[in-house]
Amino acid sequence: MSTSTLSAVIEEWGGLIQTGPFGSQLHQYDYTDEGIPVVMPKDIRNGRVDVSEIARIPESKATQLARHFLKTGSVVFPRRGEISKCAHIDEEQTGFLCGTGCIKIETPEDKLRSKFLFYYLGLRQSVEWLERNAVGTTMLNLNTKILGGLKIPLLPPKKQDEIVHTLSTYDNLIENNRRRIQLLEQAARMLYKEWFVHLRFPGHEHLKIVDGVPEGWERKPLGEIAPFKYGKALKNDDRVPGSFPVYGSSGIVGTHIKAFVSAPTIIVGRKGNVGSVYWSPDDCHPIDTVYYIDSEQCSLYLFYALQQMTFISTDVAVPGLNRDFAHSRSMLVADQKILRLFEDTVSPLHQQMELLKRQNTALAKARDILLPKLMNGEVAV
User: Fold this and answer.
1) Which member of 166, 213, 241, 291 lies 3.0 to 4.6 Å from 228 by CB, making a disulfide possible if both were Cys?
2) Can you give the C-alpha Rg of the chain in angstroms?
3) Residue range 225-238: average pLDDT?
4) In this model, does residue 167 exceed pLDDT 60?
5) Cβ distance 322 to 313 under 8 Å?
6) Nearest to 45 by CA among 173, 137, 178, 196
């Protein structure tokens, strides 16, 4: 099996490796609530672009940066930080813009299938090579020259297709489960809004509502209901991977051998992704960029209620969520009968979500074990 560098393949048969627009071309004030999605490193998750928190710019501005549009089959790489991940662009995300912190790769499909390259970049040996050759110590940085220097196998297109088909079977199952999880999450959120925002809860027609508060309910400061506790920093020497998830303000950021808090737990972003809210059904370790609500105080009702609250405090010198500010937020508290009914209704949805998430973890693990075996010919397809 012959090999070549990614740059040599592109130079001979076409394609490109290109960084996103310079900071002087795309400014913070260019971003809007609607428009063309701009892919940043934070949006690259599990081999795809996650649009849940993606930034956008007006179409008129995006047109000025047309050379940075992504096509079906484009592979997007972080240019700095977490360089071990990448995303493959599908038809739904064609026309997104490659952001400043990313690099896009377009391959000559008749010689190098983009999906095959995507899977090859996920190999441990590929990741380790990029990490060894990246620039920087505190934060790894890639450029087009480094990425282009990666050696890749020149397999026949038919062989590439067979490998892609086998691995895509796992990814399709994972994607189907992910969409089912989204539907379950949407159902739970809609039920919360129906009962506690629109106040169309069971029996609402028999209760008086005064100033937005049904009879028997009350409003309380969040600090009286569920005080926020500080997460605990993990020093470099303590960062030993294990079986317990580590939560930062962007969600799960790793694992650890010891849990800091018992399940269930609600995690709230304190720095970085301020005001983000996560539910952990497992014992976990919240780090110092988040607050958490311990198992004695947390509930699914509180989890969905926190998602409806505005937390960003603008009166602090350092951007972040001030705990006193958060504790002062007013919260509607239903009577115990309605709260128990909500928990009983939503809990089965969460149980289904957790089962699907665990299935996805197992599928991803099986795929990752199979990946190098397919690439080196140890397993035939």
Assistant:
1) 291
2) 24
3) 88
4) yes
5) yes
6) 178
Chain center to CA of 242? 20
Question: Which residue, 294, 318, 333, sits at the end of a domain?
Answer: 333
Sequence-ordered list of residues with C-beta below 8 angstroms from that of 84, at least 6 positions apart, any chain: 127, 130, 131
24 in the same domain as 78: yes
**pLDDT tens across 327-357, in order?**
999 999 999 999 999 999 999 999 999 999 9
Q: Is residue 206 part of a domain?
A: no
Residue 324 to residue 335: CA distance in whole angstroms: 26
Beta-sheet pairing, 55-57 with 36-39: antiparallel
pLDDT tens digits for 44-64?
Answer: 988 999 998 899 999 999 999
- Supply the DSSP string of 68-110, one letter for each residue: GB--TT-EEEESBS-TT--EE--GGGTT-EE-TTEEEEE--TT
Pair (253, 376) in one structural domain:
no
| Nearest residue to 70 (alpha-carbon basis) of 91, 45, 84, 44 | 91
Q: How many domains does the chain contain in total? A: 3
Say yes or no to pLDDT of 316 above 60: no
Confidence at residue 318, expressed as pLDDT on a 0 to 100 scale: 61
Same-domain check for residues 149 and 72: yes
Query: Is the previous residue joined to 264 through a cis bond, with omega within 30 degrees of 0?
Result: yes
Domain-terminating residue out of 98, 121, 154: 154
Which residues constitute the domain of residue 114? 3-154
- Is residue 105 domain-shared with residue 170, that is, in the same domain? no
What values do phi and psi take at 277, rounded to 5? -130, 130
Residue 233 identity: A
Q: What is the pTM of this model?
A: 0.83
DSSP per-residue string spanning 251-312: EEEEEESS-SBPSSEEEEE-SSSTT-EEEESS-BEE-TTEEEE-TTT--HHHHHHHHTS---
Going by their DSSP bridges, the two strands 97-98 and 36-39 should be labelled as parallel
Residue by residue, DSSP assigns 168-228 as: HHHHHHHHHHHHHHHHHHHHHHHHHIIIIIS---TTGGGS-EETTEETT-EEEEHHHHS--
Q: What CATH number does residue 180 fall under?
A: 1.10.287
Question: In angstroms, what CA-CA distances link 298 with 27, 239, 281, 283, 306?
Answer: 40, 27, 11, 13, 11
Q: Alpha-carbon torsion 322, 327, 331, 334, what sign?
A: positive
- 89 exposed, middle or buried (CB, 10 Å; 0-12, 13-18, 19+)? buried
